[in-house]
Amino acid sequence: MTYLESIIKVLIVGMILGAGLPAVFAAGIVAYSRGVGGEAPDGSVQAPNPALKYLGILLFVFVGWVILTAVLWITRATIVHHFGFDPFPMLPEK
Questions:
Q1: What's the pTM value of the predicted model, to 2 decimals?
Q2: What SS3 class is residue 46?
Q3: Residue 57 · residue 81 · CB < 8 Å
Q4: What is the pLDDT of residues 36-69, one digit of tens each?
Q5: Distances from the Cα of 5 to the Cαs of 2, 9, 11, in angstroms?
Q6: What are phi and psi of 86, to 5 degrees?
Q7: Is there a contact between 33 and 57 (Cβ–Cβ < 8 Å)?
Q8: What is the residue extent of each domain of the chain?
Q9: What b/e readout covers 26-37, taking b as 16+ CB neighbours within 10 angstroms?
Q10: ∠ CA(62), CA(55), CA(66), 5° rounding?
Q11: Which of 11, 44, 56, 88 could form a disulfide with 28 if both were Cys (CB 3.0 to 4.6 A apart)?
């Protein structure tokens, strides 16, 4: 049963990160582009919306943070071995 539970956990995380992060990034692009304002394709002019612009930037920062955290997590043992620095000192090592 442990193998099945592990496979299901990996599948769920893969679905969330595999489809969730690109969706969050796409929402950031939409929010940022609508927040900047400018001319619409039909010729109407839209005023800038700073709240949407900053929401888009916040979503970009979130996606970048998740990617950086994932890379540090994957390379944790190598970082500890070569540099003596543990990027996640609050979590126990295996």
A1: 0.74
A2: strand
A3: no
A4: 988 878 888 888 999 999 999 999 999 999 999 9
A5: 5, 6, 10
A6: -100, 115
A7: no
A8: 2-83
A9: eebeebbebbee
A10: 5
A11: 56
